[in-house]
């Protein structure tokens, strides 16, 4: 069943979320207990704003018994650290990429594979599908942690200091990728040289020439200011990416069923709100980057897709052929 909230509620909560970009506000102090929500994104990004909204909303709906304190920008560790922290109980909720979750349960990484989705509607169908529920159940069995929902992260594009118009233009290109195996699939398929670097270190790596390029959605390229140190934004759209909202097993075990249901409802509402914001930002940013002096290159994605698709069920695939076929049939 597709999860949704009405437009009036979304607009009202969106306005409230936009005003909340810091952590440790008085709303958190009023709660008897605060869950720790960690992520690696900036306070200006929709993911953080809606996480803060979720904390205040949880306090309201539980009569201030439970709130959430949000720790952005890798302040509680890099993405690998916060994933590990879920099981240890050092963090209670995280945003994380599907490939990072795939370290615990390989098949759940399928949504982070390059050119796995035809378009946004295909991605949304997967989010709302029985297949995704099966993936979440498998992850729970493997890790003890609870995947609640997906938030749209945007289409990932390559930035560089030269135009990237064909796969041949990426031959030998030293490109930063997240430190998770599945992110190697696209650069390897087109002959680039993928270099895992922590998210918090990417700007400096680009500035100093440690790497030649990186790949991320347009809203992230803006928020992390990568456009300042890269001249070209190449619209490869190679991954329709998403963040998972995950609640740690220890945190779930300490909550009664009624409070946990409230938390899950709020986390899903926050995902709807952040997804809407990302879609809106994504639609407007190509023109914004052009105004900043960047060259935005519209590329023919067909050759990139054709180069990559043979890898979908190759040696790097962490899912079964049956799971792949189910996703493609959505």
Automatic annotation (TrEMBL):
Organism: Roseibium algae
Keywords: Signal
Gene3D superfamilies (alphabetical): Bacterial extracellular solute-binding protein, family 7
CDD domains listed in its UniProt record: PBP2_TRAP_Siap (cd13672)
Protein name: Sialic acid TRAP transporter substrate-binding protein SiaP
């Amino acid at each position: 069943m597709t999860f949704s909230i009405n437009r009036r509620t979304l607009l009202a909560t969106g306005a409230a979320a936009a005003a909340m970009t810091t952590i440790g506000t008085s709303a958190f102090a009023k709660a008897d207990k605060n869950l720790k929500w960690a992520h690696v994104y900036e306070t200006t990004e929709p993911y953080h704003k809606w996480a803060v909204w979720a904390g205040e909303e949880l306090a309201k709906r539980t009569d201030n018994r439970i709130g959430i304190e949000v720790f952005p920008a890798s302040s509680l560790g890099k993405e690998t650290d916060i994933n590990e922290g879920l099981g240890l109980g050092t963090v209670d909720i995280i945003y994380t990429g599907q490939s990072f979750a795939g370290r615990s349960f390989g098949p759940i990484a399928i949504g982070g594979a390059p050119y796995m989705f035809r378009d946004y509607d295909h991605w949304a169908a997967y989010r709302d599908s029985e297949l995704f529920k099966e993936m979440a159940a498998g992850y729970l069995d493997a890790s003890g942690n609870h995947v609640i929902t997906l938030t749209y992260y945007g289409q990932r594009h390559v930035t560089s200091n030269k135009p990237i118009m064909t796969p041949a233009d990426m031959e030998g290109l030293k490109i930063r990728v997240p430190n998770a195996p599945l992110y190697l699939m696209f650069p390897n398929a087109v002959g680039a040289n993928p270099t895992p670097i922590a998210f918090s270190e990417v700007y400096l790596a680009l500035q100093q020439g440690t790497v030649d390029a990186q790949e991320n959605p347009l809203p992230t390229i803006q928020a992390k200011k990568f456009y300042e140190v890269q001249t070209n934004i190449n619209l490869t759209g190679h991954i329709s990416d998403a963040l998972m909202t995950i609640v740690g097993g220890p945190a779930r075990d300490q909550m009664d069923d009624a409070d946990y249901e409230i938390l899950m409802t709020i986390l899903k509402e926050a995902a709807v709100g952040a997804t809407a914001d990302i879609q809106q930002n994504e639609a407007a940013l190509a023109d914004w980057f052009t105004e900043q002096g960047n060259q935005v290159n519209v590329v023919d994605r067909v050759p990139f897709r054709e180069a990559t698709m043979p890898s979908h069920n190759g040696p790097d695939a962490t899912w079964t052929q049956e799971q792949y076929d189910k996703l493609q049939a959505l």
